[in-house]
Amino acid sequence: MSLGLGRWTLRHRVLALLGVVGVMLFSVAVAEAIVATKNRDYTDVLLTEVGPLRVQGQEMLNALLDQETGVRGYAVTADPEDLAPYEQGLARERTTAQEIRLLSAKYPAVEADLLVVEQLADEWRRSVAQPVIDTTRTSGTAAGQALLTDETRQRFDEVRGAVAALQDEIFTAREATARNVERTGNLLVVLLIVAGLVVALAGIALLLALDRMVLRPLTALAGQVREVVTGDYAHRIVGAGPPEFQRLGTDVDAMRQRIAADLAEVREARERIEWVNTQLQKQAEELTRSNRDLEQFAYVASHDLQEPLRKVASFCQLLQRRYAGRLDERADQYIAFAVDGAQRMQRLINDLLAFSRIGRLTAGFTDVDLNQLMGEVAAQTEPARQYADAELTWGDLPVIRGEEPLLTNLLVNLVSNSVKFRRPDVAPKVHVSARLVGDEWEITCQDNGIGIEPEFADKIFVIFQRLHAKDAYPGTGIGLAIVKKIVEYHGGRVWVDTDVPEGTAIRFALPALPRDVEAAGGAGAPEADAASPAGSPAGDERPTGDGTVSAGADADSTVRPPADDRAADAGTAQRTGVARQGGGAPGDPGKSGSGDTGGMKEAVG
Questions:
Q1: Secondary structure letter of residue 140 according to DSSP
Q2: CB atoms within 10 A of CB 573
Q3: What are the boundaries of each domain within the chain?
Q4: What distance in Å separates the CA atoms of residue 604 and residue 583, rounded to the nearest whole number?
Q5: Which of 170, 200, 465, 539 has the fewest CB atoms within 10 Å distance of its CB?
Q6: pLDDT per position as a tens digit, 592-602
């Protein structure tokens, strides 16, 4: 293939091949059209000119024979009726001569022979026929017959010979035309055969060109691609054939290079990930051991600190009672500081013990009716609620699979915090409600307290995290950390709903029992708690621990936490044996409990 042809695209090559075949077929078609036209013309001449000429030539002979027959008959009978053939033959002769002249315009030789026939016929009539007719009419039949001699017969034979020559010339013209018809017909057949051969050769050429220009390059390219598919990503792909296939090979090779580079990166990344996973696994194991050691240390340290701390607290209290008023005012203040510090240390150790026991001691899961549990919660938080004039209400709560002591501690912490972080001169109202969302119960504890700023919503569940000073809201700052650990131990998650218009709404989700999910699916998943403002009686009323009426549900209980903020890992928990309650201002009943989160409400300043 020449350099110039090698640059031809597949489209140009196919168009060129089709153009050559088209020109050949067009040439054959034009030749066939020309030959067919000539064949039709020759056939028309044969049918409309030469054929009628033969008929008219025979008619000319018959007309002359009728004239000769009429003259002889009249010479024998002298009957005028016997001259009818002569007269009719003469008329036919003239008509036939006129027809022959019209048909023989293209045949000068026929016209010349016709002229000879007419001249000889006129001479015969002038010298033979007319004298015989005139003599018979005037002198009788004998005289007329006497004129019919061998000489007169010879003259008519000359006329007949001229007619025969005319017929021969007409026959010659017919034979020439017939040969032309046959020749053009044979040529037409040859051209049809040539056209068929051209079509066959064109088909073969197209197949060969398709194999050479398309199939072979594609087969070669496919073979190279299969080499890459089998895993030989280093195999270079080279396109062959028309420029399109060469570009295709270049593009496929570029894709191979990108795939090879990506695979190398993926392989390297996988190795890095495997190494990182190995390191993470080691770190996880180390963290597990560290957490276990820390929990053990916290438990042991808290437990071992109890006895010396009790001694310090006891002797400080004895010292305060015995020597109160006997020493100077500064000494009494120092003793009061020591007693208060010992008591706060006692509360902190108790909370640490409670936090460390979650996940260590377990009584097993049972079906816990939160409605009954709220009665226990109301009883444990009654002193703090009476001091703050707080109202506790709850709606129709579900049955949860879990540990009753831990769930009690969970709700006690939430209610105590709601009572503690109240607004001045506003009676606290706490409402607990629940609704079924999918396969979880979403339980909400909402109050009308000081609220939480959105930027602190995640910090309040961190252990020892506080947003207020101890003299404003006392506590250890571990209450909501215990809440979170208990919820996660039960396979749930806890978050703060920052969209409530007033107060604080802490929501936590726990797995629902299968029967609740099935019942909700058949009933269109209604909420378990009818919506009503927190603290307002509605629906089924049930007494609380302080004699107030609890009913209804929180109307604003639809906000869910972001997915990445939902805790999934579970911890374990155990009741400390004492219901921890938050208090109000310093000096409130129950202020020694673990209900304080430290960061439960919005930051001041």
A1: -
A2: 29
A3: 3-220, 242-357, 362-605
A4: 19
A5: 200
A6: 334 333 333 33
